[in-house]
Amino acid sequence: MANKTLVAVFSASGVTKRVGEEIAKIAGADFYEIAPKEIYTSADLDWMNKKSRSSVEMNDPSARPEINGKVADMASYDTVIVGFPIWWGVAPRIIDTFLESYDFSGKKIIPFCTSGGSGVGRSDTALHKDVSGDVKWAKGKQINRPNEAEIRRWLDEVL
What pTM value is reported for the model? Predict the structure, then answer.
């Protein structure tokens, strides 16, 4: 059986989605957008406002924003590439929601992030706590724009 790959991304501004779509195209993978039940407004994303929705969520490790929809057949995938923007040095809480919503036993999870400032940092390994069972983790990578050559090199390393 051929290895089947899913690229699942959360993107608040569209940057991570564009990178994820390019990764899916190059990898011959399916694409899934992790869409919040309640879309983030620009006020929600104002990291300077301590009362903004994103600030409140990121300051609460137990916050789990609801996702609109589900991956149709997660069991059919061997590899899941998970993409997200960096918020407060880590993945947004909706990524915790996503990872806690499925059984990833026997799968390989490959994180990637986009960021205007910080790198992957502890964001990829911090996600390990959200997944139980026999999961292979690849090292996360920061990819800020759809660069075909960079993405191909990375996929050759991790797939």
Answer: 0.94
